[in-house]
């Protein structure tokens, strides 16, 4: 009953207007991305981030702490499941660095609906699609973004195509059956291993209808997708970071936690080898 109440709190926070079908899923995905920021703050701080539903909803929804794929996509998965959709988790290899040997370290949701299958992803940071990706269609178009799907019997490759940009492969999705225990293993590595990306880099993002906001270590970016412009700002003080986290990313991070993370960012920047 407590889990049901937490899911209902989450759904109520999204103020959903659709009541069924792919329109409901799309609205949930878009409003989640706009309201609940992607964040590596807790992972970088060193928190053990339990994926048990009750602490998960408390951290992400009630306390507005943000999170990354294993947190965001489990919340969305449980909500879609409670709404009566046929869903299951899947794991993917993130391909943003171009390496084909990356581990399966990204969780998303596979939705079966009206004879079609969709990838629903609310936890891929600033590159998260705003709409479910139909894996039975070669292309999914949403605004300035076009997502190309290349499918085999066992995998799906999703590539972002944008005018004026080189094709960017987002992930290779493994369609095999996945258990929560599989997600726990990948999640543990992603937020506890000393060399994991989110343990070593501050990454915060939020996506609205016309904007994609990204904070990466000491750089802050805004993509104004309605007019195609991009701005970049250097984060030069803790006060500036604190304001961004609260006002742009809508997070309520404890000040001591954020200060510890900011100090780690500065230390890593100071120790970074100079490129020649």
TrEMBL record:
It comes from the Bacteria. Pfam families: Acetyltransf_2 (PF00797). Transmembrane segments: none annotated. Coiled coil: none annotated. Signal peptide: none annotated. PANTHER family: ARYLAMINE N-ACETYLTRANSFERASE 4-RELATED (PTHR11786:SF0), N-HYDROXYARYLAMINE O-ACETYLTRANSFERASE (PTHR11786). Belongs to the arylamine N-acetyltransferase family. This is N-hydroxyarylamine O-acetyltransferase. It comes from Pseudoalteromonas piscicida. The lineage of its organism: Bacteria, Pseudomonadati, Pseudomonadota, Gammaproteobacteria, Alteromonadales.
């Amino acid at each position: 009953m407590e889990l049901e109440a937490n899911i209902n709190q989450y759904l109520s926070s999204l103020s959903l207007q659709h009541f069924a079908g792919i329109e409901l899923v799309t609205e949930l995905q878009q409003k989640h991305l706009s309201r609940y920021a992607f964040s590596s703050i807790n992972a970088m701080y060193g928190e053990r981030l339990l994926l048990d539903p009750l602490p998960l909803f408390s951290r992400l929804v009630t306390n507005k702490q943000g999170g990354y794929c294993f947190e965001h996509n489990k919340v969305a998965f449980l909500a879609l499941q409670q709404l009566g959709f046929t869903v299951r988790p899947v794991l993917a290899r993130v391909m943003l660095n171009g390496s084909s040997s990356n581990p399966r370290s990204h969780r998303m949701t596979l939705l079966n609906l009206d004879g079609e299958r969709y990838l629903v992803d609310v936890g891929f940071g600033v590159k998260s699609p705003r709409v479910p990706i139909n894996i039975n269609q070669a292309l999914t178009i949403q605004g300035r973004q076009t997502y190309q799907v290349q499918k085999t019997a066992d995998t799906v490759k999703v590539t972002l195509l944008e005018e004026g940009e080189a094709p960017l492969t987002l992930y290779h999705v493994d369609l095999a059956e996945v258990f929560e225990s599989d997600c726990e293993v990948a999640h543990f590595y992603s937020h506890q291993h000393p060399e994991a990306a989110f343990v070593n880099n501050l990454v915060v993002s939020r996506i609205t209808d016309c904007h994609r906001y990204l904070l990466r270590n000491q750089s802050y970016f805004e993509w104004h997708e309605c007019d195609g412009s991009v701005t970049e700002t250097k984060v030069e003080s803790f006060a500036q970071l604190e304001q961004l986290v609260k006002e742009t990313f809508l997070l309520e991070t404890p000040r001591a936690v954020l200060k510890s993370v900011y100090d780690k960012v500065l230390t890593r920047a100071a120790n970074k080898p100079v490129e020649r």
